[in-house]
Every structure is written in C-alpha cells, then in structure tokens.
Specification:
The structure is a single chain. This protein folds into 2 domains: about 45 residues, no CATH class; about 180 residues, Orthogonal Bundle (Lysozyme). It is globular. Helix content is about 65%, strand content about 0%. With about 240 residues, the protein is mainly α. The N and C termini lie far apart (about 95 Å).
C-alpha cells in the first residue's frame, strides 16, 4: 500500500489548496473601476491641454479700454519725450494697464499710488533725481504719472542691459515692479547655475531671489506687459513695436 492510502493524514495535508478565492463580482467591479479611472485621467489631461490658451488667444482676449483722447495724449507725449523716434506708446500704455488699469486714483494695499503705482518714497526720490521734468511730481496726476513711468523705465533700462532689447526691457520692468536688488540676486543665481545672466525668458526668469509669491507676481508682470498687453494695444491701434515679438 502506498503512503497516501496508508496514512489518511498525509492525504489530507497534501490535498489542501492554498489558492485564494475571489468572487467574480469583485473582479468585475475592479476592472470596471480601473476602466473608468483611465477614461477620467485621459479626459482630464485633454481638458487641461484644451483650456491652456495660446499666446495669440491671450492677446485677443485682452479688453483694451477706450481711453479718452486727453489721456491717450498724455501717454503718447510721455513716450515720445523720453524715447523719441524709438518710442512705443503701446508699451507704456500696457504698463499703465497692468499697474492700475487706467485708474488715476488707484491705491494698492501696500500704498502704491496712481496710474503708474509709485510708492511715496519712490515718487519723492524720482522728483529729486529729475527735478527739471518731475520737480513737483504728483503720482495722482495722470500726465505726470505717465511721464514719471517713462522716465523711470528709461533709467532702469540703462542700468540693466540684457543681451537683446527684449531682455533689457524685461529686466527694466522686473526692477520697476520688484526692485533692482532682487533682480540682481536672480541674475547672480542664474550665472552661478551656468545660465545666461543677460537673458530673461528661459534664463534669469527661472531663478528666484525673493519670496515665492513675489517671484510669481514679478514674472507675471513682465510677461503680461511684453508678451500680451503690448501686442494687444498695438492690435487696438496704439503706435509702437512689440519689443519681444
């Protein structure tokens, strides 16, 4: 007699099955769940791609306000006085749009004032720096604010040259918005990382030398003026050339 017949305990032990029984309904439920999840992920990805507007769409979506003739003259006059034949009134208009949306009585939560959103200390400094043009500078006066913004842009541009007109303007606007010290820290970090410190887009713009919220706001400020608003104002009939086109 073989061992299986002589020893019933042996037979019982060797016949034990260690397979786990999973009900068919549970398998079906799991497969259905994975299918729905996959479809949802694909749809979510397609939706995200579809809702990211192109640059052209962003430009077309800008609501360029109907600025009255007097205010428009202030901007055109200021740009031409500072920049001469190279003036782009559309760029200065874009900056005012971004700063205050043309509200001459605008005041920011931190105290910036008027069309061009000068802080009181900066307004005082620029009046002293350029007494012939801005000796009695009033940031609440639209005509003076437009001129002061153009003068300050020019001053910053001369001090913060990039490797192209686009980069130079990006540096100037970054400094206008967030100060030269933060910009210079970020240029230094870019250079130490092996990036071009004279390039803004795909260069210095990727490096941070300020708080995250301030960094995001600063990058959005520069991008919105140069890539979106200036072209939008040109499309709306303002004179000028898009410097980062």
């Amino acid at each position: 007699m073989n061992e299986r017949r002589r020893n019933p305990e042996y037979r019982w032990i060797t016949d034990i099955s260690f397979s786990v029984h999973i009900p068919g309904w549970l398998i079906g439920f799991a497969l259905a769940f994975l299918l729905v999840l996959g479809v949802a992920l694909i749809a979510s990805s397609a939706h995200a791609e579809g809702t990211a507007p192109s640059l052209a769409a962003q430009i077309a979506a800008v609501d360029v306000p109907e600025v009255n003739a007097v205010q428009r003259h202030y901007v055109e006059q200021a740009a031409e006085e500072v920049w001469g034949v190279d003036a782009s009134p559309a760029r200065l208009a874009a900056q005012i749009h971004q700063e205050s949306h043309w509200r001459s009585k605008a005041r920011s939560p931190v105290g910036a004032e008027g069309w061009a959103q000068f802080m009181p200390a900066t307004a005082k400094w620029i009046a002293q720096q350029f007494p012939d043009q801005l000796g009695q500078f009033d940031p609440w006066d639209p005509q003076q604010a437009a001129l002061a913004a153009a003068i300050y842009d020019h001053w910053l541009l001369q001090r913060n040259q990039g490797d192209s007109p686009c980069a130079s303007w990006a540096f100037a606007l970054s400094a206008y918005n967030g100060g030269e010290a933060a910009l210079q820290r970020e240029q230094t970090r870019a250079e130490r990382a092996g990036a071009n410190p004279l390039l803004w887009f795909d260069g210095v713009a990727r490096y941070r030398g300020r708080s995250m919220s301030a960094w995001r706001q600063n990058r959005g400020y520069v991008r919105q003026i140069l890539l979106v608003l200036e072209p939008a104002y040109i499309d709306a009939g303002w004179s000028g050339t898009a410097v980062c086109a």
